[in-house]
Write a structure and sequence with these properties.
transmembrane helix, 66% helix, Energy-coupling factor transport system permease protein, two-stranded antiparallel sheet, ABC/ECF_trnsptr_transmembrane, mainly alpha, 2 domains
Length: 276
């Protein structure tokens, strides 16, 4: 099975038909709302909404599985680091202490710490689906246009667009180089020992890096010959005007952010505390 990276999936769904600028505004407000709140009730409702949108988008798991696995690895490392460096953070936040069982020294598992880390995990899994949806339902050219529309320099926006377009090329080059290496007897499968697999993969990455550098030089020369960056403004071929659905989505996320903020701070704290 081929490894699939985080690339645009050209499907026909309500999310794909939204303009890139509307989706960018939605994602920014969504991410800010999730970062602000530690209210478990708000996060659970937002997570359910995100999962529904992921279902509506018709995107398959294989389209983002590789990136999701990487995220889960860093997710687990982050939670381990939280407990190692601050095992009683939940106790200090919620003002109570209910011990479950000791581990060693100051490392004691408490209900407050588990609830705090559950909320941290909930914040991650609430943002990740929206980030994946934004990347997978927005064509790179339209993504660049949306960045420029919200005030980012078109030079930066175009660089982001090229980077996103380049992901499938890197993936294809890696697969071609890996197939050529395997044809010469270089094994990178699980049948080989881990140390030898790492050495063999390094042998594949080196020509991949050289190929990438060569392509970057070609693109840079082509853009320089066309006087890219000479003017302060530019138009976008893939830019789309707002429709009623775009305005509806923006109003919806504003309402979600407002309701979540009210529920979060109605008791004077952004931490939902079930222990009091």
């Amino acid at each position: 099975m081929k490894m699939r990276m985080l690339t645009y999936s050209p499907l026909d769904s309500p999310l794909h038909r939204l303009s890139g600028a509307a989706k960018l505004i939605f994602f920014i407000l969504w991410a800010v709302t999730v970062m602000v709140t530690f209210d478990t009730r708000s996060l659970l409702v937002m997570l359910l909404f995100a999962l529904i949108l992921l279902r509506v988008s018709r995107i398959k798991l294989r389209d983002y599985a590789f990136v999701l696995y990487l995220i889960l690895i860093f997710f687990a490392l982050n939670h381990l680091a939280i407990f190692l460096f601050s095992p009683l953070e939940g106790v200090s936040l919620y003002g109570t202490r209910h011990d479950l069982f000791p581990i060693a020294g100051r490392y004691i598992v408490t209900e407050e710490q588990l609830f705090y880390q559950f909320n941290v995990a909930l914040k991650y899994v609430t943002v990740i689906p929206m980030a994946l949806l934004f990347m997978l339902t927005t064509e790179p050219g339209e993504f660049a246009a949306s960045l420029h529309r919200v005030g980012i320099s078109y030079r930066i926006a175009y660089a982001v667009s090229i980077a996103l377009r380049y992901i499938p090329d890197v993936q294809r080059d890696y697969e071609n180089i890996a197939c050529a290496a395997q044809a010469r007897g270089i094994d990178i499968s699980r049948k080989e020992k881990l140390t030898r697999r790492v050495r063999n993969m390094i042998g594949i990455l080196l020509p991949l890096i050289l190929t990438s550098v060569q392509r970057i030089e070609t693109i840079s020369a082509a853009m320089e010959l066309r006087s890219f960056g000479q003017h302060r403004k530019r138009t976008w071929y893939n830019g789309r005007p707002f429709t009623w659905m775009d305005y509806f989505v923006i109003i919806l996320i504003i309402l979600i952010a407002a309701v979540s903020t009210y529920v979060t701070f109605q008791d004077g704290s952004r931490f939902y505390n079930p222990f009091q």
